[in-house]
Amino acid sequence: MTTATLVKQKTSVTLRLSHFIGVALAALILISYYVLPFVVQPERGPSDIATLTGGRGNNEFGLAVNGLVMLPFAGLGALLLGVWNLLSPRHERVIALLLAVCGFVGLTYYVIFFRQYLETSADYLSSMSVGFWLMLGACVALVAQVAVPRRPAERDYTPRAVLSNQEMVLAAGLILLVIVVGIANPRFLAERNLSDVIQGHAYIAVAALGMTMVIVTGNIDISVGSLVGLLAIISGRLATDTGQIWLAWLAPLFVGALFGGVNGFFVAYMRIPSIVVTLGMLSIIKGILLIWTAGSRVVDLPQGFFLAQMRPLNVPMPIWFMVVLTIVVALWMRYSGLGRAMYAVGGNKEAARLSGLNEQRIVFQAFVLNGVFVGIASVLYATQLTIIQATPPPNLELTIITSAVVGGVSILGGTGTVVGAAIAAILLNVIRTAMVFINVSPFWLQAVQGLLILVTVLADLLRRRRQRR
Q1: What is the pLDDT of residues 176-199, one digit of tens each?
Q2: Which of 61, 289, 331, 467 has the highest CB neighbour count under 10 A?
Q3: Where are the domains of the chain?
Q4: CATH number for the segment(s) 199-468
Q5: 143-152 as b/e: b if 16+ CB within 10 A
Q6: Residue 7, burial from CB neighbour count under 10 angstroms (0-12, 13-18, 19+)
Q7: Residue 291 burial class via C-beta count within 10 angstroms: exposed 0-12, middle 13-18, buried 19 and up
Q8: How far is it between the farthest Cα atoms of the chain?
Q9: DSSP bridge pairs for 388
Q10: What is d(CA 256, CA 124) in angstroms, rounded to the nearest whole number?
Q11: Cα separation of 379 and 250, whole Å?
């Protein structure tokens, strides 16, 4: 028997019925949500989700609708996990735990529903149709399937091994925060609010992708906040002065690459510390903004300029940019030569040099790419409202850097992923919005950001110390 045959026999796992649980329950939730009746209203007949999610005024007996959007989220999450289980059966134990999390996400709506039902002494429970009860049963089944007997996992496929990375921790914290705040104040789970929360920091998540590349190489860029403001003004002025929308969208990318190239040249080839270079660039950009705009806003923007307000397939454009770019950059940094070289330079510059890598060129390219992503973020920022402010949001650079660092990117370089940075960007906005809904002053957000940075950096230092032993 050949070695290849032995390896194949060792790595193959026969699919059993337990591997199909996620796909089956996900299909039940999604079909119930989009196809089956949810409630039967007097004189109206069966009502679907589209009718109800418009607000309580659209149903005759004040049915709770805050949190309904959690049901398709639970179904979609379970579907993705179910497919993962079919493609990688060895992960079935950890996937079972994640499926249970999807079940709790879906049950969040039912907690809100029954709490309001008891508080208002309502009597419409008998009007709930088949879709309502099937989704409830599927969510309960997602939680209960953890008890289904499964084959013991090998060491590399145990829940502890898979869930111990920073991205999983952030995702779990994000889901837990949404559930807790949503139950405390159901208005937090209104579909419009969740959409605003996700797309509100989508441009920051895009900027954090470029920041991740810079930090991975062992550097930092604290000029990104001011650069977003400058590029947004450039985009708006081009739109109003020339009427060329495509030029207004593309120009910030090239100008951002130019500023990134200047930073990269001084850092990589002149050997000036990145914090010194970008601090000087921050002051230069702020001076340009003040002289050029004189504090005036850009108004009277043409109608087709508002890219961030477009909704392909009813999904806000910033969310499309955030998700697609995060996936593309994550794959590129993992499998491309330049992406792997960035990790090598940030992890050990001397070892990278001895391996034949050109440290200067790699650092320079990281700063240029960072400028491109800042340009994309500036376009999303400029097109989300009908006016463009002369100055960017305060502490924007801190938020972008915090997203990257809290997302698991080591401030010392060499480790981290863009997926964690994108999740952290959304988490920060969820925290800020949650403070409003639970009556906590939003001024505490900066303290929370600082605490998250300190905790993340401390965890990274402890991890590196354990690796040296």
Answers
A1: 889 999 999 998 998 888 888 888
A2: 289
A3: 16-151, 199-468
A4: 1.10.3470
A5: bebeeeebee
A6: exposed
A7: exposed
A8: 79
A9: 298
A10: 57
A11: 9
